[in-house]
Design brief:
Elements lengths: L6 H20 L6 H32 L3 H23 L6 H32 L2 H17 L14 H20 L5
């Protein structure tokens, strides 16, 4: 992740990347261990993406978009649901009977969330904010993703300032765990 452009282009590219990973998972037979490797990669990308949105996108939506508080609250609820699903999925191997159910739930949650963002939230944000602000937000989101956790932390705070303070430390621990286990290296 880290595509360039304004915040909307950056996040839309992330959405497309995750959808490509979903397609790869769906293209493999049930129980194939590569499905777990891809599920871990999806989780890593989604967690980084979510942390960046929670740190910068949703505060901007609250500040600049009419009825932005309600929109941001709805998005945060969707993130929380997906994060709980990812946490459950984290403990499953590809041959676990719950793996397919959890993967399908995650795909459904994320696809619904993406559709709402791309069809409603992003156009409203583009209308409410000048281009230079959207560019600046894109830069902030890219920086946040580099420092963000790579594993789900459902009980972690999801709004500033607490999330901005804690996320880099959790990210460092997650990246160390990933390096030690080889997670995300494929």
């Amino acid at each position: 992740m880290g595509h360039g452009g304004d915040v909307i282009a950056e996040l839309t590219a992330d959405h497309e990347e995750v959808e490509q990973l979903f397609a790869k998972i769906q293209g493999l037979p049930p129980g194939d261990p590569r499905r777990k490797t891809l599920a871990d990669q999806v989780t890593m990308e989604l967690v980084r993406h979510s942390v960046a949105e929670e740190s910068y996108l949703y505060p901007a939506v609250r500040e600049h978009v009419p009825q932005g508080d309600g929109l941001a609250d709805q998005e945060l609820e969707e993130h929380a649901a997906a994060e709980r699903t990812m946490k459950d999925l984290e403990g499953c191997g590809a041959d676990d009977p719950r793996f397919d159910e959890l993967m399908m739930r995650l795909m459904s949650e994320i696809r619904s969330h993406v559709a709402e963002e791309e069809n409603d939230l992003f156009p409203r944000l583009r209308q409410a904010c000048p281009a230079d602000m959207l560019d600046e937000l894109g830069d902030k989101v890219r920086r946040a993703k580099k420092m963000a956790p790579t594993r789900p932390h459902p009980s972690a705070p999801d709004t500033p300032p607490a999330n901005k303070i804690l996320a880099p430390g959790m990210g460092m621990v997650d990246r160390l765990r990933d390096a030690m286990t080889g997670r995300g290296k494929d």
